[in-house]
């Protein structure tokens, strides 16, 4: 090729590169927006938390269920799911609603450089398979055929990480009537949609390290049974860190403790299947602190959520649980755990995720692990914090504190944190 041909080829390459850059810029500034399309919603109320929890339980039951599950979301569940998602993943926002025969999902996702991805999906009913839908993304409004294609592309990207059923298998028999959405749905199993959202704000936890620590704790429990929460903590954080950093070992230890002391489903945070722990499986161990079984569960679950899904979600989850309890006759955690909003329970939540947050930072991982390996009950959960209000009804909580975004409530939480800051575990 002569010099003239080389120059011609170079010009073409430069023109092509310029065109691609321009197309990218046009897409960036038309698909994304300078701000969110929805205002930041207020923190959820007790009623919204209850509705959101019911919606989440239905969605969870549909995960990995090949036969599908009947999903019924009324106005309370739709509003609640949007409220708790917006609170847990803020500044991102989610709103779900039903109008006439249409279901509308609005989502705002914060992006780098101060831009926002604003998406609206409108699905029409009735439909035997996946409903006819329209997508609005930024300045683009896609007709049903292009919307379907865009959703198929999204499904394909998700299927690279987890098995995702075809759209017409994922959603069937879709109807919207009287503000209620009803459909037969089948969602991906472990590491599905909700887990992908949580994983976006937390680093993966090494599952081999979780297995190693869990099996060591289960073996120690079989040889020397203990119902003391502090003793279980000593065992978990006295183990050598192996080939991983202290930070990674700490994070795995919180997940292992969650599986051992709270619920097998905590393994989801490390993308562990039940079969991977079968060779050393142990029943969930009931442990106590100050004679109560519920506070260790609060502490441990909050710590596991913090390392598996981020401290913001862990903090929000503790508040949601108490708001839900303020409407309930009996707490979901344990018999003997009084119903109502409990500042003592909230203190246990904050103690757990605060310790997990500190143990996950490279500059404090060694210090916190050493402290946890010999921590007393008073350090894990200071006694004066469990003397706080227990069992407030929703009306009493609202009268005294307004809500979880009220200055009075925030002041009380700051007081709890001030006490926890003196323990050396944060």
Give keywords.
single chain, 426 residues, alpha+beta
- Separation, N- and C-terminal Cα atoms: 68 Å
SSE-based structural type: alpha+beta
Shape: globular
Helix tally equals 16
Low-confidence stretches: 191-201, 328-337
- Summarize the main sheet: 6 strands, antiparallel
Chain-averaged pLDDT: 82
Helix-residue proportion = 40-55%
Count of distinct strands? 9
Strand content: 5-15%
**SSE pattern:** HEHEHEEEEEHHEEHHHHHHHHHHH
Report Rg: 24 Å
User: How many domains comprise the coordinates?
Assistant: 2
Topology:
Blueprint (H helix, E strand, L loop, with lengths): L2 H29 E2 L12 H16 L7 E5 L1 H14 L4 E7 L2 E9 L5 E9 L8 E5 L2 E3 L1 H16 L7 H4 E7 L2 E6 L7 H7 L7 H17 L5 H10 L7 H16 L32 H16 L1 H15 L17 H17 L5 H8 L4 H4 L13 H8 L5 H14 L6
Antiparallel strand pairs: 1-5, 2-9, 3-4, 4-5, 5-6, 6-7, 8-9
Description:
Strands 1, 3, 4, 5, 6 and 7 form a 6-stranded antiparallel beta sheet that branches. Strands 2-9-8 form a 3-stranded antiparallel beta sheet. It has helices spanning 3-31, 46-61, 75-88, 144-159, 167-170, 193-199, 207-223, 229-238, 246-261, 294-309, 311-325, 343-359, 365-372, 377-380, 394-401, 407-420, and strands spanning 32-33, 69-73, 93-99, 102-110, 116-124, 133-137, 140-142, 171-177, 180-185. It has 2 domains: 46-199, no CATH class; 207-420, no CATH class. With 426 residues, it is α+β, with helices and mostly antiparallel strands. A hairpin with an 8-residue loop joins strand 5 and strand 6. Mean pLDDT is 82; it is low at 191-201 and 328-337.
